């Protein structure tokens, strides 16, 4: 054990285990988490080659092998609780998305939320047993999101054939054919090819495809269909299915994100997910109780991503803080030993806010999950009243937490200097695997605008005298103040006072956005143009701080004081996240702090070190010996060598 890190732990002023229990929810939950962890980390079937030294195809193959083992073991150990599955999976594939993510995270949950009992028997049971492997295909090459109501090509009441259509307006279509009781699915244009779904490229044999439903000559907007895409025995693509991998990406190397072109693919009537919307055998369309229920799986994953932001931050600051405790640089005072870099105020100012955010997001993630479970329980009982708030909260928190975490991971990487740039630190991987959360499941700006939409509606209800409940109740309680009213009183030591200032700022920003829309409406006369011209204010309204210059200075001074208070407990606070070394997979973030010897050991495994003279270098050796000069270069430009 590195002596610096030992001293850090001796100096801590609280019981780390108790804090771990609080983070987990209870001592029993900590025990069970560790039990699952050891099932995976001590299982030889999950041993792997360091993916840093593998090609993409090798990484995919290794991940598929581990995922298959994972499904067998989950069954063997009878693990079926979604939280436990999620935890087990995260130990099997630490930090890395894998080919079955979409199957587990979106295919199964969409069936649970939108399938009829008969469809559950036909699809969910075989999917649970991994006979059916599914993905969720919404995004297309030309469109990541849909606004059917604004499009000439589709609305619940417009006929299918409209004069003003251009081919680029077309999206994947599912047209009901009553003669055969089938839907005929087509991707009419290049831009309508499904693009991005995880596991689609090679792994899945089924996809939930989001397509426009056409029946009896009318288009009814976006609906979900279960489409078999590969033969269940041979895994070969079925007729009419053009499918494959979209190629290498920034990260996600283990995942076969794919494309899917549908060419007159026929599926039975009862392959449309019909828990809510229905098509009768004669083609009659039965509306769902709420059109928004189609978006349910996205709300589930967005809620989950809030917790993933916390985990990415916990990992990043564990690595950076432990490393900063063992790394020494630059004499502070001449003649004295070099200090731990964690003693530099600037280093603390980089890392301690990340640490605090990791804790805050952990609790926000738990709150988001409880809210999701509560409101989705109501929805299953037929009460849809909480859906707008759940959507606004999950969309806004997904965007806010992923943006914040995305920036903070990079702060942690840079705070480790050069070694942070090495893949041995794990920080580059954490970044590339995390950063697409800002884009997928709804691009963050678009999500903030969804939250703003809800805030503005709530604002106008509050101004109309309604007493609002839940997360927007502050809009009823607080009267937005004009700038001339000055800044509110603030006690920076008092959490309640800080919350009040945040709420006031939020109310002011919502009012600012509403005023902007009103002004733009007078200028532009169209609600949509006024909305777009106020979009910057709207995004700010979803991301609410209202301080005077002296108050801001007071906050700065207080932050410096807090850095000093936090310093003795920094290592213990990251230890409390209880991230096992094998899961963390970082040379810099090792629990024992023995960084340098392991860094050296890790580098020696680089494939480039497999031979002292890599084969490609023989050409240089030959050139050096002047044997090729005559044939490679004209005499007049021949290289001068000393040999
Ligand atoms: C037993 C089960 C076992 C489970 C085990 C689980 C264990 C877990 C194991 C593993 C997990 C692995 C982790 C998984 C990793 C996942 C990787 C993810 C990979 C990525 C996937 C994707 O990206 S899928 C594609 C996602 N795409 C999007 O998100 C597109 C975003 N676009 C949209 O959401 C909509 O198009 C948009 C809302 C932007 C616009 O739609 P439009 O209809 O035009 O909207 P608008 O007119 O603005 O609003 C209409 C109306 O509807 C309301 N609304 C919009 N969205 C929602 C919603 N989601 N919910 C509720 N309501 C919504 C909106 O507010 C408007 O309301 P009103 O104002 O009119 O009242
Ligand atoms: C790693 C990864 C995995 C994915 N997995 C899946 C999957 O499994 N299944 C699936 O269906 N999809 C998947 N996706 C696709 C993902 O859901 C989309 O990329 C995402 O929804 C964003 O859509 P887009 O790419 O069309 O971006 P665009 O909407 O084209 O965004 C581009 C820019 O335009 C801006 N913009 C767009 N609309 C507006 C607006 N109304 N107002 C203001 N600004 C706007 C955005 O803010 C952004 O800056 C995945 C993507 C990635 C990167």
The shape, in one word, is globular
Q: So what's the CATH class of the domain at 132-145 and 169-288?
A: Mainly Beta
Residues in helices, as a percent range: 40-55%
Low-confidence segments, ≥5 residues, pLDDT <50? Answer: 148-168, 636-643
Secondary structure category: alpha+beta
What can be said about the biggest beta sheet? 6 strands, mixed
Measured distance between first and last alpha carbons:
51 Å
3D architecture notes:
This protein has 643 residues and is an alpha+beta fold. It is built from 22 helices and 11 strands. Among the domains are: 132-145 and 169-288, Butyryl-CoA Dehydrogenase, subunit A, domain 2 (Beta Barrel); 446-478 and 491-546, no CATH class. It is 49% helix and 9% strand. The strands form 3 sheets. Strands 1, 2, 3, 5, 6 and 9 form a 6-stranded mixed β-sheet that branches. Strands 4-8-7 form a 3-stranded antiparallel β-sheet, with no helix packed on it. Strands 10-11 form a two-stranded antiparallel sheet. The structure holds ligand LGJENVYW and flavin-adenine dinucleotide.
């Amino acid at each position: 054990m590195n002596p610096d890190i030992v001293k850090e732990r001796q100096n801590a002023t609280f019981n780390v285990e108790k804090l771990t229990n609080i983070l987990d929810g209870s001592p029993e939950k900590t025990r069970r988490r560790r039990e699952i962890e050891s099932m995976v980390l001590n299982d030889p079937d999950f041993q792997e080659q360091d993916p840093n030294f593998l090609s993409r195809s090798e990484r995919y193959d290794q991940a598929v092998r581990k995922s298959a083992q994972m499904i067998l073991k989950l069954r063997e150990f009878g693990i079926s609780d979604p939280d436990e599955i999620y935890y087990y999976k995260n130990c099997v594939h630490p930090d890395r998305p894998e080919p079955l993510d979409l199957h587990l995270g979106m295919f199964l949950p969409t069936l649970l939320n939108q399938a009829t009992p008969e469809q559950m028997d036909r699809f969910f049971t075989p999917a649970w047993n991994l006979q059916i492997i599914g993905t969720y295909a919404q995004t297309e090459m030309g469109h990541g999101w849909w606004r059917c109501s604004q499009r000439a090509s589709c609305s619940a009441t417009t006929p299918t054939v409209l004069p003003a259509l251009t081919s680029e307006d077309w999206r994947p279509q599912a047209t009901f054919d009553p003669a055969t009781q089938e839907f005929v699915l087509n991707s009419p244009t290049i831009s309508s090819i499904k693009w991005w779904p995880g596991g689609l490229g090679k792994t899945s044999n089924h996809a939930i495809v989001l397509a426009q439903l056409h029946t009896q000559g009318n288009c009814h907007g976006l609906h979900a269909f279960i489409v078999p895409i590969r033969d269940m025995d041979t895994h070969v693509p079925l007729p009419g299915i053009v499918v494959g991998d979209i190629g290498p990406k920034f990260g996600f190397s283990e995942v076969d994100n794919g494309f899917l072109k549908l060419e007159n693919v026929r599926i039975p009537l009862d392959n449309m997910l019909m828990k809510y919307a229905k098509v009768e055998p004669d083609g009659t369309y039965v509306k769902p109780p709420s059109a928004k229920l189609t978006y349910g799986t996205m709300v589930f994953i967005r809620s989950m991503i809030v917790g993933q932001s916390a985990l990415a931050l916990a990992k990043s600051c564990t690595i950076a803080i432990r490393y900063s405790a063992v790394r020494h640089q630059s004499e502070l005072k001449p003649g004295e030993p070099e200090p731990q870099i964690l003693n530099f105020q600037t280093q603390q100012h980089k890392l301690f806010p990340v640490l605090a955010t990791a804790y805050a997001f952990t609790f926000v993630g738990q709150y988001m999950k409880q809210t999701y479970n509560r409101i989705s329980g109501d929805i299953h009982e037929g009460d849809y009243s909480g859906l707008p708030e759940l959507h606004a909260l999950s969309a806004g928190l997904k965007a806010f937490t992923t943006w914040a975490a995305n920036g903070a991971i990079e702060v942690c990487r840079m705070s480790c200097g050069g070694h942070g740039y090495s893949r041995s630190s794990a920080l580059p991987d954490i970044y590339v695997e995390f950063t697409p959360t800002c884009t997928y499941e709804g691009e963050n700006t678009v999500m903030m605008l969804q939250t703003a939409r809800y805030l503005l509606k709530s604002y106008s209800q509050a101004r109309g005298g309604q007493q609002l409940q839940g997360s927007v109740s502050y809009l009823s309680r607080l009267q937005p103040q004009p700038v001339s009213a000055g800044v509110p009183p603030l006690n920076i030591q008092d959490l309640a006072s800080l919350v009040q200032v945040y709420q006031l700022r939020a109310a002011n920003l919502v009012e600012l956005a509403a005023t902007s829309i009103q002004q733009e409406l007078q200028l532009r006369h169209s609600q949509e143009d006024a909305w777009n011209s106020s979009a910057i204010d709207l995004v700010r309204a979803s991301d609410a701080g209202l301080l005077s210059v002296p108050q801001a200075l007071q906050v700065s001074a207080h932050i410096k004081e807090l850095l000093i208070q936090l310093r003795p407990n920094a290592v213990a606070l990251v230890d409390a996240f209880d991230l096992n070394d094998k899961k963390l997979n970082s040379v810099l973030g090792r629990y024992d702090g023995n960084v340098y010897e392991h860094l050296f050991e890790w580098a020696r495994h680089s494939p480039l070190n497999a031979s002292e003279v890599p084969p490609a270098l023989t050409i240089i050796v030959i050139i050096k010996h002047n044997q090729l000069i005559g044939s490679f270069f004209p005499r007049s430009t021949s290289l001068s060598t000393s040999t």
